[in-house]
């Protein structure tokens, strides 16, 4: 496990990165050879290790999935509240549809 450095890291854009140590566990994956070769090329092009690239990909996908789960929970709770206050299921459905459409655009 790497130790946190005392100096804050900065991105090229000047944003400060806050790095914190977290417990890690090793994972073994079977990856097709051609996929690994592609990962190695991409990682080299980004000046990073394959491990760092995989962590980046996992982190991005995980954040997207967590955001979707959170949004789904909000919509579910919104539906419950609307149903409690509005008797027409048609009207509730129309409101939920409007929220979904406006949140995508």
Overview of this protein structure:
- This protein has 105 residues and is mainly alpha-helical.
- It has a domain at 31-99.
- Helix content is 62%, strand content 4%.
- It has 3 helices and 2 strands, in the order ββααα.
- It has helices at 33-45, 50-85, 89-104, and strands at 9-10, 16-17.
- Strands 1-2 form a two-stranded antiparallel sheet.
- A hairpin with a 5-residue loop joins β1 (9-10) and β2.
- The radius of gyration is 22 Å and the shape is elongated.
- The two termini are 42 Å apart.
- The relative contact order is 0.06.
- Residues 1-5 have low confidence and may be disordered.
What's the total helix number? Answer: 3
Q: Report Rg.
A: 22 Å
Fraction of residues in helices? 55-70%
Strand content: under 5%
Low-pLDDT residue intervals, each spanning 5 or more residues: 1-5
Distance between the termini: 42 Å
Enumerate the strands of the largest sheet in spatial order, edge to edge or round the barrel. Answer: 1-2
Q: What's the average pLDDT? A: 88
Class based on secondary structure composition and strand pairing = mainly alpha
SSE string, helices as H and strands as E: EEHHH
Overall outline: elongated
Give the gist of this structure.
With 105 residues, the chain is mainly alpha-helical.
């Amino acid at each position: 496990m790497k130790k946190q450095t005392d100096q804050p890291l900065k991105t090229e854009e000047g944003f400060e990165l806050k790095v914190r140590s977290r417990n890690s566990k090793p994972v073994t994956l079977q990856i097709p050879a051609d996929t690994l070769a592609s990962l190695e090329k991409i990682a080299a092009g980004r000046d990073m290790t394959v491990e760092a690239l995989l962590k980046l990909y996992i982190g991005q996908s995980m954040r997207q999935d967590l955001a979707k789960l959170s949004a789904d929970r909000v919509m579910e709770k919104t539906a419950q509240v609307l149903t409690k206050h509005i008797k027409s299921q048609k009207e509730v459905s129309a409101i939920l549809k409007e929220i979904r459409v406006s949140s995508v655009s």
